[in-house]
Every structure is written in structure tokens, then in C-alpha cells.
Amino acid sequence: MLLEQERRDLCLTARRLTDSGLAHGEGGSVSIRSGDLLAITPAGATLDLVEPADCPVLSVDERVLEGRRAPAAEATLHMAVYRSTTARAVVHAHAENAAVVSATLAELPPIHYTAARLGGAIPVTRYATYGTGDLSDQAVKALKGKYAALLANHGGVATGDCLDQAFEHARLLEWLCGIYIRAKTIGEPRVLSEEELAEARTRDTYGWAGPDIW
């Protein structure tokens, strides 16, 4: 079986999405790239029930090489991200907070320092029908210099060097959306400056200690 281990890891990540509340039913897709091939969750499948053999393997020119089910509707989006970035994994989910923010704002402002890990402010694409090349183009533009983006009236997409990192970026995106929504209920959130975000990135490079712990 092509990409056997990658397909197993794909299924584990799909289940993590459901278990963490980031995805519900068929509302999302996950993919992983290995060389010129990628594996993706299938269309019309409940994510926590997906099996490795269900997950189709595609070439970078979008030919289906193996798998007993068709690729997810957003396979075009995943492909576009891989062609335009150095990502090795993509997580797309219809998480609740992300869906709310994507239907309301033009951009998710960075009101918590961990937004620096995703690239700062998170763009919201203009609306495009799911599964279309238009949506893929919008997502690629929004992901420029970012590890996550919001798809208008839809949900979110996150990338990473591996499935674990892409999942964590998706989880962080959802948390940041939730923090913003809650903050707005009591006042206008204070937005961090680029300088403040840059300081957070610098400190992150030192791990837990930071550059000035002593």
C-alpha cells in the first residue's frame, strides 16, 4: 500500500480533530505530503471513522493512484497549498469559533502573543464556493507568510512541517478565534503590535528559558 504509514497517521489526526471538537462529521479534511505523492482523507467520510485504505493517494498533478474512496472535496485546496508553500501537512476544519470569525471579520487581529506562531494577524479570504479553484487561490494568497488562514463563511486551514504541527496550528487558530470572541463581549481587545509579536517570536526561539532568564 502506497504511503502506508502516512495514511495511518492521517487517520489518527482525523480522529484527533473530531475528539478535540475541531471537526464534526464530514466537516474537514487532512492531508500529508511525501515527495511527489500525498495522501488525503476521503470525500463523504466521517473523520473519526476513516481507515487507511479509505484515504486516496494522489500525485502532485492530481492523479489518483490508490485508495478505495474519492479524495475530499477540498483536495484542490490542499494541492494548491503544497504547490505554493513548503508545507508537508495541511489541516482544514470547520471548527466553531473559526467559522464564526470567518463569517464576521476581514482579519483576526493578534490579541494574544501566541498569534506570532501562526504569523500574526490571520487573514480571512473573500468568500468562494467550497471545492473550487477560486477558493484554493484565495487560500494560497491568505497563507503567504502564515501558518493558518480563515476561509470566509467556511472555516480554517492550517499548515505544518508534519501532521502534528499542522494539527497544533489548527488548534491554536481555533483557540485564538475563541479568545477574540470572548474578549469582544467585554470590550475592545488590545491588538499587539508587530514589534511585540517579533519579541514573542524571538523569545520562542530560546524555548522555555527565554534570552534573559538569568
Please characterize this protein's 3D structure.
- It is a single chain.
- By secondary structure, the protein is an alpha+beta fold.
- The protein has one domain: L-fuculose-1-phosphate Aldolase.
- It contains six helices and nine strands; from the N terminus they run αββββαβαββαββαα.
- It has helices at residues 4-19, 75-84, 96-102, 133-142, 163-184, 194-204; strands at residues 28-34, 37-40, 57-59, 64-66, 89-93, 107-108, 122-123, 148-151, 155-160.
- It is globular.
- The protein starts with a helix and ends in a 10-residue tail after the last helix.
- The mean pLDDT is 94.
Compact summary:
The protein is of the alpha+beta class and 214 residues long. It has 6 helices and 9 strands. It has one domain: Class II aldolase/adducin N-terminal domain (L-fuculose-1-phosphate Aldolase), CATH 3.40.225.
List keywords for this structure.
214 residues, alpha+beta, L-fuculose-1-phosphate Aldolase, two-stranded antiparallel sheet, 6 helices
Number of distinct helices? 6
- Shape type: globular
Structural category: alpha+beta
Q: Return the CATH topology.
A: L-fuculose-1-phosphate Aldolase
Radius of gyration: 17 Å
What is the number of E strands? Answer: 9
Please tell me the total number of domains: 1
The CATH architecture comes to 3-Layer(aba) Sandwich
Content of β-strand: 15-25%
- Tell me the name of the CATH class: Alpha Beta
Report the biggest beta sheet as strand number plus sense, adding barrel if it closes.
Answer: 7 strands, antiparallel
Helical content stands at 25-40%
Q: What gap, in angstroms, lies between the N and C termini?
A: 52 Å
- State the order of secondary-structure elements, H for helix, E for strand: HEEEEHEHEEHEEHH
Mean model confidence by pLDDT: 94
Please list the strands of the largest sheet in the order they lie side by side: 4-3-2-1-5-9-8
CATH level 4 superfamily? Class II aldolase/adducin N-terminal domain
Low-confidence stretches: none
